[in-house]
Amino acid sequence: MLIKTDGIVIKESSYSEKDKLMTVLTRDLGVIRAFAKGSKSFKHKNFSATQILNYSEFVFLAKNGIYTLREASLKNTFLEIRDSFESLIIAQYICESVLHLVRENMESNDILRLVLNSVYALTKNKFNKRIIKSVFEIKLLSILGYQLDCNKCKLCKKILEYSQYFHTSGFICENCFQELNFYERTQCIKTNTSVLNAITYITDAPCGSMFSFSLSDKNLKTLSLLTQKYIITHTERAMKTLKIYEEYFRLSKKI
Ligand SMILES: [Zn+2]
Hints:
By secondary structure, this protein is of the alpha+beta class. It contains 8 helices and 8 strands; from the N terminus they run E-E-E-E-E-H-H-H-E-E-H-H-E-H-H-H.
């Protein structure tokens, strides 16, 4: 059966001397792996469409649960992303997150739209790149059903007031924080109303305005730590690209 869908390549690996195995976040099939025969050659018609971060319309042959690329029509390359190391590594981190959290046959239209919007924003100098990263993390988890509750304590369910903490996968109140053991308390991130308001804004904002807000450097750092911790809780693994991103920040002394 031939299936036409569009998607962005989130991973490419060598399969044989001439062939490639690519992983694609598609609009209709979730994340799939597909053989791209001959596409390692510069001269092959599908060479560009099968490269990581390129967005194309694809025609796949699906047979016995295996996908093989038949045709590809390149739609966007996001080449400007390579002008900034920070943008490039965040884009690769976006790909790695999708790889770990999105499966084949999952509803993926909104996720593809989020990824395309985030990668596009990374090619522009209009938005703070840490905001783009945090927005992507919150939106992705929200689409997957892990929406953060910024109103109630995750443990006692009381309304959150001035002092809140982020604990593993949700916010807790001061009282519940005091009842945690010492180790658990060291794992919490102290937050505040500005950060919670930013998360509520991101969760509710449509794609067109989701990056359009500002935070102080201190609050942006808190937001960034929190959203990163939240996504790690769900991927349940250390991500290679995240380590590179953190090292980049350490070296550039931005943290
Ligand atoms: Zn509580």
